[in-house]
Design brief:
Number of helices of chain A: 3
Distance between the termini of chain B: 62 Å
Structural class of chain A: alpha+beta
Strand order of the largest sheet of chain A: 4-7-9
Radius of gyration of chain B: 24 Å
Largest sheet of chain A: 3 strands, antiparallel
Radius of gyration of chain A: 16 Å
Largest interface: A-D, 66 and 54 residues
Oligomer: heterotetramer
Number of strands of chain A: 10
Strand content of chain B: over 45%
Shape of chain B: globular
Helix content of chain B: under 10%
């Protein structure tokens, strides 16, 4: 599992051909891995639904030290910026999760919607500072990849499902 | 007497002081460990999965009539919880690491004697347990008490089938693309799928699938209006409620499950006034009276589905009609209703940590237990 | 160790001859056990010192549900009465410690000084309700049996050094 | 493209959205894990042994100049803590149970790389560790970094000698009737005894005792005026302070240790005004300047030795004279003073959880880090 996730991440980072990547994915899956699968248009459709559902009362500032920072529109956890990291850095000694739940948040500086990955920093107990719970796009466990109540430490190496804090990285523009 | 003999062991110095004082003392008191009566219908189990640590899930056992703490259980990372049908045992599915937050992972189903709240056995589980905010969709017991179903998320979804007679894992059932283990019959459970369909799985005493069927279409619109994960259970019917307040009944007696007619919790006026369901555990059913209870808040708009509620709205499930609005003295995050004929409504607040109690039928406020330590999140009932 | 403690407790409870008990103790110690030893008069002397050190601002009521209950003059922990037990009962499923730190508290109803044993109920995580910290007679680790900061689960069976709550039992009249 | 190929793996769905949006997107951000600079003289390690659980001891690493959190370490039940003399490693002695609050006990010395705050090794310890409110008397490192001494209380007292070169327990040294492991030389540590005497133990590289001597009489009156467990350390001198404010200097260079002349922290007027030392960590020394800092509170009388303090009184250790009174904006439970020539005084409050910073030499208030989670209890320095 771990190596698959790492491999996927590396693959995505290296490939420029989407078609090639997806073909490779198919091969990996044929290799016997069982993962919750969703059609691309489902994920994208959900993202669209989130976008049309309007403002949430959060996510409107450009200050990563507050719960209202735009990227945190789907955040649930402790801000890594209060725990020895930043919104794009895990604190020293934690284990960065290669996986995350995702949200779609609007950047007030350009008015565009971005896909945000909320990547947990795992392996140490909860930092407890700057807890923020916004829930834009959050869905129950049946839509796992959108569930911000899940401990998103899948694929950590060494493996630990204890979360210290959570980051919010920009994965891409919402199409 | 040797010099050595006039020395005493420090750890019993209190007792030895007793020796010296024996002539003039009242009887020495002992300490005993309490035993509990069999759980009553208004007992409630209050779970704290995130109280200053992610490594420990504490459960308070509360008598909902006296509003007193009866005891406590200590689990691991985001434990799952269930009570056996005969109320004699309590199950917690726990995850521990050999070094607390790291090291080797152990997933284990711990069996507690309900009268003593003490572990009496355990079954080692595959290290795949769903680790997320606990709710009652994560573990279930078959009506005969024979099997316990434990939800797995790796993030691939499956269910570990634990045989409580042999105290071993009988099998693992894949529920690809679907999550949750809602018990739906003697050897049947139901899962909700990522496309809004429902999967019904039947299994045998070997823990193997005998039938697994999906509804041919979604029973709600996952794009426009997703449902809360845990439905209100009323006999063989389950009532899913959407973020916008639509009720989607599903009958679990068939395989696959049979959808009923959807209806709205809100009038147009209420909807325009901004009422929405919400909370960590925003709905509960009472089978004896055919009632649905929903925690409601006003304002905030979309994606406030986890906001605390200020009122509990009560619906007659046959008439699809609201019959009561119970205003909560303190906003609450979770509700639970007991299953007896004189049901009690419990409303749990995370901060301040307290639980209010109401007569579920007439809305009368009955009392509060406050000063619950930590951040209580969920309730489990009998 | 566990069985020694239990044996000691049972022995104390059963014996009526102090001399016989102490002789038995000597035998146990000759059996190779190493325990922190104190002369009897040291313990008693300390108890006396506590008594002469005056009022502490606590320990003056007869209500076991408050931190001011007279027996709690040297208490440090969570009251078992708030956790499913009472000041003389451990909550269901906890493991009663056979050992304790001790204090000397004055009962307002008869004006007498009693030796109080603060026996921890172990094996479950801290209850967290009704935390009380009084410190009459508390001493650092070099006077172990008077240190209320120690986890007093020595001799629990099964052994666990996690404390759920603490009781306060009357062990005897202060001489 | 097969049907399978148009499906994506949910756990990387964000990344795949990236695939679709690649043409118009800004560079994808990564997440990295921070690396720390070498610890500075004003770094402080704030310990939370009782934050909603007894099973977890959290340590915040704070840069006392910027008053920012640098990171965190997670230990077990009431951990012991020490930093290696070269500041490159941090040690925590931890106790874990296989089932969190119960099961099999493991005591272990965990070795952290100080630049990464990540465990790089461990040594299994005898399951005898002292489990009590942590303080700096419970673990110590020899000046050359070769041995770590871990205090045991069962309640019999002993010391586990851990060889950090071989990463194994070299031996166990009994300190019957005496507790604490205050490092006093290359292979020498000091313990305080239950009768008020002091025990000095010398040991060799095999972890065996080579000399163990007790002072021939108590260095304080344990009946009338006990000392706080942890002295202020100033070079080879240790300054013990009693509950009533007497200072008992002990020189650790000899075996047994040599007592100095006792002196009082208080004038008669101050004593009559009800001033007393107190707190969880009420005193600290600064060797560079020869100063003693004591946390003081007024009123409450006897047995208020753990009460929070409202002022820090600063004494010149040569002149036995108070040279400053620093009034704390917020009452504090523990203090620590850095060991450099421009020392900072830190004052930690358990509730609300915060740490104030002051120039130790002129008492100037420098700032506060607030919102420390949990109930911070102790500080450790460099």
């Amino acid at each position: 599992m771990d190596s698959l996730v790492e491999q996927l991440t590396r693959t995505v980072a290296q490939r420029t051909s989407r078609r090639g990547f997806l073909a490779r994915m198919g091969k990996l899956m044929l290799g016997g891995m069982v993962l919750p699968l969703l059609p691309v248009d489902r994920v994208m459709g959900t993202a669209r639904a989130q976008m049309t559902m309007g403002p949430t009362g959060t996510g409107r500032t450009d200050d990563p030290s507050t719960c209202d920072y735009w990227r945190y529109c789907g955040f649930d956890g402790n801000l890594c910026g209060c725990c020895g990291g930043s919104h794009t850095e895990c604190p020293a000694g934690t284990i960065m999760s290669p996986t995350s739940w995702v949200g779609t948040c609007r950047d007030p500086s350009d008015g565009k919607e971005y896909i945000i990955g909320y990547r947990d920093c795992c392996g140490k107990d909860v930092c407890g500072r700057c807890f923020c719970e916004n829930n834009k796009g959050d869905m129950p466990i049946y839509r796992t990849q959108l569930d911000n109540g899940v401990i998103w430490c899948f694929g950590t190496k060494p493996s630990s499902y204890v979360v210290n804090c959570t980051t919010a990285v920009r994965l891409g523009l919402k199409t | 007497m040797t010099k050595r003999a006039v020395y005493i062991v420090a750890i019993v110095c209190g007792l030895l002081t007793w020796c010296g004082a024996r002539a003039q003392m009242p009887p020495e008191e002992g300490v005993k460990v309490r035993e509990l009566p069999l759980a009553g219908p208004h007992w409630v189990f209050i779970m704290n999965p995130f109280s200053g640590t992610l490594q420990v899930t504490s459960v308070f056992v509360v008598d909902g009539d006296s509003l007193q703490i009866m005891g406590q259980m200590t689990g691991g990372i985001t434990s799952a919880f269930a009570v056996s049908p005969d109320r004699k045992q309590i199950y917690m599915a726990d995850t521990f690491y050999s070094r607390g937050s790291r090291g080797e992972r152990t997933d284990v189903l711990t069996i507690y004697d309900a009268r003593h709240l003490a572990p009496v056995g355990e079954v080692i589980l595959p290290t795949k347990r769903q680790l997320s905010i606990p709710d009652s969709s994560q573990m279930a017991v078959t009506p005969d008490g024979r099997f316990v179903l434990v939800a797995n998320v790796t993030p691939a979804t499956s269910v570990s089938v634990v045989d409580m007679v042999n105290r071993s894992v009988a099998g693992e059932i894949e529920t690809s693309g679907c999550a949750e283990t809602l018990i739906a019959g003697a050897r049947r459970f139901v899962s909700v799928c990522s496309d809004g369909a429902m999967l019904t799985t039947e299994f045998n005493d070997d823990g193997k699938v005998t039938a697994q069927k999906r509804t041919d279409k979604p029973f709600f619109d996952i794009e426009k209006d997703p449902v809360f994960g845990v439905p209100a259970r009323v006999g063989e019917d389950a009532y899913f409620v959407s973020y916008h307040g639509m009720v989607y009944p599903m009958n679990f007696a068939s395989n696959p499950a049979t959808p009923g007619s959807a209806w709205s919790l809100f009038s147009d006026a209420e909807r325009q006034a901004g009422w929405l369901p919400g909370g960590y555990q925003p709905l509960w059913g009472n089978a004896a009276k055919g009632l649905l209870f929903v925690l409601m808040h006003q304002g905030g708009g979309e994606w406030t589905h986890k906001n605390p509620g200020t009122e509990v709205w009560v619906y007659d499930l046959k008439q699809h009609k609201r019959i009561d609005r119970i205003v909560l003295p303190q906003a609450a995050n979770s509700i639970l209703v007991s299953q007896d004929n004189a049901p009690t409504l419990f409303a749990l607040s995370a901060m301040p940590a307290m639980m209010q109690s109401f007569s579920a039928l007439d809305g009368r406020y009955l009392g509060t237990i406050s000063g619950l330590s930590g951040v209580p999140w969920e309730m489990f009932g009998l």
